[in-house]
Input
Amino acid sequence: MAITAPSVETVFTARQITKTYHMGEVDVQALRGVDLELYAGEFVVLLGPSGSGKSTLLNILGGLDVPSSGEVFYRDRQLTEFDDAALTRYRREHVGFVFQFYNLIPSLTARENVSLITEIARDPMKPVEALGLVGLGKRLDHFPAQMSGGEQQRVAIARAVAKRPDVLLCDEPTGALDVHTGILVLEAIQKINAELKTTTVVITHNAVIAEMADRVIHLSGGEITGVETHSRKRPASELNW
Amino acid sequence: MLIPPLDRKMFRDLWHMRGLAAAISVVMGCGIALFILSRSMLHSLELTQQTYYDRYNFADVFASIKRAPDELINRISKIPGVAIAERRIVVPVNLSVPGLDEPASGRLISVPDVGRPRLDQLYLRRGRWLTPRSDDEALASEAFVDANQLEVGDTFSAVINGRMKELQIVGVVLSPEYIYEIKPGGIVPDNRHFGVFWMNEEALSLAFDMDGAFNDLAIKLMRGANVENVIQRVDYLIEPYGGLGAFDRRDQLSHQFVDNEIEQNRNMGLFAPSIFLGVSAFLINVVMSRTINSQREQIAALKAFGYSNLEVGWHYIKGVLLIAAIALAIGIPAGAWFGWLVTRMYARLFHFPVFLFRIYPSVLVAAAGVAASAAILGAIGSVSRAVRLPPAEAMRPEPPSGFGPTILERMGIGRFVPPIALMVVRQLERHPIKTGLSTLAISLAVAVLVIGNFFQDSIDYMMNAQFHWVQRFDVSVATTDPVSDRAMYELASMPGVMRCEPTRTVSARVRAGARDRRVGIRGIEPQSTLYGLVDMDGRETPLPPHGLLISKKLAEVLDVNVGDWVEMEVLTDKRPKRRVMIAATLKDFVGLAAYMDLEELRRIMLEGQVVNGVNLEVDPAYQDALYRELKETPAISTVMVKQHSIDSFNDTIAKNLGVMKRINLIFACIIAAGVVYNSARISLSERSRELATLRVIGFTRQEISSILLGELAIVTLLAIPVGLGLGTFFAWWMCTAFDQELFRFPMVVSNRTYAWASLVVIAASAVSGLLVRRSLDHLDLVAVLKSRE
Output
């Protein structure tokens, strides 16, 4: 298995990005000049405590948010130059999202939540196939309210990967789950990364999860405080916390 | 998958909030129903009227003459533009009707002995046509026959040429010329005491000395003929024979009333639906804001996956369009049904022989357009917020909005107010637009009730003014021809007559520049006590010693002011023409009136002490004896008993008004309940977390319901003065809109109406508030706190 190396294609390049939020009457500086490169097919964990700027960084990479300053490139295209419509197209064609609180549509079944994406994607999997990938082939017609948190999160993963995205961005995917279901979810993500070669970024404040990654990027106070590269990734099934 | 997943979401979301969606659909459905009702009724009445006129050859021009030789009709026929000119004999008569103590009056109209009339043809409802040459048979108008419960074969008596003659009703008929049968000088139909009858021409011409002559004519014009031109030429031809001036349909009394009724519906028809559609747009606004707020994260997910803003916006718009579609599904059949009912009611009221009910496709298209616009208007604000919501921001829960010190604290009384009251006030102040719209929506319910009752108030006032301030007499009689005022002594000596006052009314054309109107100029004595010149506000205007006192409306129509001079062309007797001054105007309710000092009028008419009407004050104890004598007095053509007009009015108009009031009540309750129920449900779901927290920390059910219901109570109480103001404004607006030549509505809203409107809305709000309060009792504390909003 090829370990990521500089020769591998660069998917994301971020240069000196900053982000300031105006929350009511206070300004919050979420990112303070972040430089970053992410490579094709790699599994990256963004590790850091709450408020370290992880989610902001992920949102910017996913085209959900724009930085206050700095430049972001997706392959050779500059995301920071995109207008709203271009960002929408970018997300539609290239990005898969998994959120901490799943963000499933409660009024749609598992299959329908996935087909929400396959409807608009160019070369999608069949919803059944995507749900099969995450081990939910038998719960196609259940509504979110009828599923456990882990199952809901796996539906969310199936939904994210059904479009065969180039990058899979996961924001605290196990944040709301217990260890057992959390591991099932991580296994699903790992499997996607391995089988589909999807560049995968996982946000967590759980250091254990970092052991599954090719690279771990530490964030604190809106800045990158360190990067470590693993020569051996641990399978999710071995993790425990 | 046949239905795209996003559409499934929409259907299921709607199903989830079916209570709210149903409430909105019903309110909007009411608007649509009212729209369909008013339009279909308007179109159907117009079509029915038109069809009736066409089928029965309703004439275009009419004229009365003193006595013209038959030969004249040939000359009139040759006027360019005249298609058919038909001669008739029309005479007013006094009647004695079985089962009726008091005298009634009627109008006898001749029909050819052989064949049928070519114009203003009759529809034979029951019975048979007249036997040729019979002089004791009559066809009677259905309204009269029905009102007096007469039947074919019954007889009644008419004073014909001074002799009481018995006539047998052989047929019951309808005429396009008498859709609305109103006694000359009357303001409401009194079918019991006034009827129209048709008899063979020969019989009438012998009885009224019209052999080889006629006194009335009807003209059908050719297509595209110039009416004014024809009227001018007819006038020229009939003038030597005592022509009263030809007039077209616009001045034909029955047509005027029917048109007036249709016209009123044209204006009113759009007003009520707009209130409902406005309220439903507001309800949609409230519900959509809430829905979109609670779906922030779903919206974020959709956008994160690459759904465009347009797709997200269209998704929500489709949802409200579906609500509009349900409203149409409720409103169209309901409106069609009500429209049919009301149109049939009118068709019966007007005795139309044909009844056509139509809903034009264009009306349905317009209804759909209006419903869709109201729905989109209501949703557009929150949907565009959803569309503009940046996905990353949508991911985070909405930040707590800035609360500040409320008006209570700013006023420095905050310390004395319990925290719960502060919460209520802060909540209302925090959403000023929402609070304002809720207030406005409930105030519309108040306004609907005010308007509904305003008509009653206004008509009560108008009738009271007309019957007690203006018509202070008990009985008014009119003679066929002017008689010497010695007739007054005769009347004064009749049983029960306490006081008599003479009047002299002449038909005249009043002209100011290019504008003119045919009016009856009534000469009265300046010291008259039985006829009051009273304006809308109850102020008495003295009769000016010289010149004319005219209705303000007539002054408007003629575009003249007090002090201006007009030409007065009398159309009877010696037909004098004079220039007279407008000495004063009177803001009155009914018709276009003109008054003049009796002596001055007589001078203008170049006549002595003659009268053609007398107002009587009567001792009720002797009225039966008086009626018997009046019935047998040959010179009298019309007897108007004031009490009968009042009764007839109460029987017809008041009944219809009652129905209208009940419909209004239902609609206002639907609006008030719909708004309060929606607001309560929405604030319950928005704030269930907060309320549950309060319960957990020890607040009682009573306390937390007072937070929720307190808001609604404040909004309702705020809405009442606003609604009363709005209602008053709408009432004023309607008075302006209904300012017509036939009627003007006085702007009167009684305190009872205000109180009634307020109480009904408070009650409707209370009931729907309590309905929602029940769900507060079932608040699942644990579940609410665990769920993440």
Observations:
- Helices of chain A lie at 54-61, 84-94, 110-118, 127-133, 149-161, 179-196.
- The two ends of chain A are 27 Å apart (CA to CA).
